[in-house]
Structures are given as structure tokens and as C-alpha cells.
Amino acid sequence: MLESVFPDKELTKEQQKVFERIETFIKDNLNGSKKAIFQLNGDAGTGKSIILTKLFLAIEKRAKENKTNNYFLVNHPELLKVYQENAGEFSELRKNRFLRPTTFINQSHKKQTKADVVVIDEAHLLLSESVNYNNFTQKNQLEEIIKLSKVVILVFDEHQVLKLKSYWSKNLVDQVIKKFQAKFEEATLMTQMRMQAPRKVVRWIDDLTDKLQLDQDLVSKKDYLTMSSNYDFRVYSNAEKMYQALKKKNSEVGESRIVATADYPSTLDGKKHYVNEGQFHLPWDQYNYSKVTWAQKPETIDEIGSIYTVQGFDLQYVAVIIGPSVSLSKDSIVVDPDKYEDQEAFKKRHEDDLSDLHTAKKSIILNSINVLLKRGVQGCFIYFHDRDIYDFLNNQR
């Protein structure tokens, strides 16, 4: 998990080419009169964070010589822990340069300072409107960061937008960039690097979340359906059997966890809240106050992780419970936002910029499923609350 964002990880040829493009972009624009923005696109698991961490290490190595003031931002507390821990392994990196966006913005305004280069991982998690609860009072975080920087390098994946208060689309990002009349370049990573899976498995996931279609090209086993001998991809009819299989994998290879869509009630009130599916009964993860990430704690094999726990991370095996908001109708997937329990994700926006709120909510649910299903390096197990989906996949309908 940690090595996936370690700064000295070797890059592929595709990643190296993009890395060199961004380095050139920074050098060409650092002393320019205009704002400069480079946008790195790519699906979950294509290696965007690997490029960013290696890039920031290179920037910081030159910081003293160039007298630059640089920051690495990520709006994800679990990921921030990893970046700060990794920073301690390199003398050139300082932990106080790895911040949450709100901290950077408020700190910069208070001290009346500006940055030279700001790198933003998971920019799709930036707030796109003011949220007093998060101590952010300006209009949107991307705009504020651009104001406070000379060069901005950001990672963006429209398919990983998970909340209305951080609702981004390519159009909204383009509007912010256009407002500054900035110099702009972008690159897109295409190769899936996390999942050691054949293309047909990745396509199965994308067809489910992008097209609401299910490929029935699955072979029936004793307890589950499968479609690949190279990647351990399974669809279970029984959540408890799936969990027991996952625990076995965890004892064999480590860092294997069960997660679920936010279709089951949970409140941050200090009490345990459970996901129940037949004989399966486990509590949601608790707020993680320690510096150790959730999946690195041995005891969390007995908890259920959420999208907020595992987004951006690698797991060896992931088991995903897809809850009641997803069902089958006439051989197609149907998504019902009214059955989604994550009220924070659907908290009403102040900005009246969404023409179709129902579609936006459905996109958030499908994005979360896509992200969860793409966590596993060696394998992915799936359980659907709606038994009709399993029966359809098993050609029993």
C-alpha cells in the first residue's frame, strides 16, 4: 500500500514520458508572468499519484537552489498520513509541505504568502463551494489554490467525484482554468497499473458503472462465479462466505479488506454501526485517529471500510458489498439514490450549477462502486444485495 505512492518507485515508459512533460512545463513557466496549470488525467490505478510523488521529490531537491516555496496537497486524511510518513524517508522532503487544501489556503491568507509550485493529488476531492464546517469560506478550492500559486499540477478523475459539495465535472474544471487565462497543458494515463487483471475484468467493472450493463461471461464455481484465471475475480451469492474467503487471503498475502457502498446506516457518534447481509454481520470502520492507515491495522480485517477509507489506496484483495441502491430491472442495472445512506455525500449544494441533481447523485454512487472495485492488486470479490443480479450472472433468470 505505501509503496504505491513512494517517491523513488520506478516509472513505466508511459509514466516517465508524462513526468518529463510536467517537469519541462514547470521549468518553462515558473518565472513567467501568467498562471500555469497542468492537469493529469487517468482512471483509478493508472499511476497518477506515483508521478506526483516523484515529481514533488524532484521539485524539492531543487528548492534551495531555486529558492522556491512548494506544497503538496491532498483532501484525504488517510492519504495525507501516507505522504507525511513517506516524507520522513527523504531528507529533501518536509512533512509540513504536505497539507490539506483548506490548511494551505487559510495559512497562505493569514501569512499573506504565495507558493511557487503546488501539486494537488485527487483534485476531484477539492471542495467546489464554501463549506463552513470544513473552515472553507471562499467559493471553491481549486480557484483559491490557483490564486495563491504560480504553477499548479493537479490530478483529476471525473469518475472519482464522491460528494455534491466537491462535485466536479470536466466542464467545471475548464471554467475555473479559463477564468485565469492560464497557460494550460494536460496528459492522460491509459494503462491500468494497480490491478494485475486482464482487460476483460476491467471492462466488466467499467460496463457495470458506466453503462449499467452486466457481462454474463462468468463460470460457476462451488460458492461463487468467476471469469479470470489470471486475476482472482469472484461474484458471491453469500456475503459471509465471501468474507471468510477474504480472511484466508489476508492471512496469506496481507492487506486484504472488506468494504461496502454507503447503503447501510452509519453515524459518527462514537458507537458501532453494522452492515447486515444474511449471516454476515460486521461493524463499519471507526474514525481513525492514529497515524497508521486503516488497512495497515491488523484488527481492521474485522471491520468494513468505506469509500472514504480506501480511496487512493492499494489492497492485495478487496471484497466489495454492493448494497440496496443497486438492483436489476429487465437485465439492466438500476440505481436508486433514495436508498443511499450517505447523507453527507448528497448534502445540498449552495451553488445552483447542477442541471440534473438526480443524475449527479447516481453518478456519485456509480463512481464510488468503480473506485471500490478497483482497489485489489491480486483479486476482487463482489457481493450484490440484490440476489437477482447474482442469478442473472449465473444465467438463472
From TrEMBL:
Superkingdom as given in the UniProt entry: Bacteria
Domain Schlafen group 3-like DNA/RNA helicase positions: 35-386
Protein name from the UniProt record: DUF2075 domain-containing protein
Source organism phylogeny: Bacteria, Bacillati, Bacillota, Bacilli, Lactobacillales
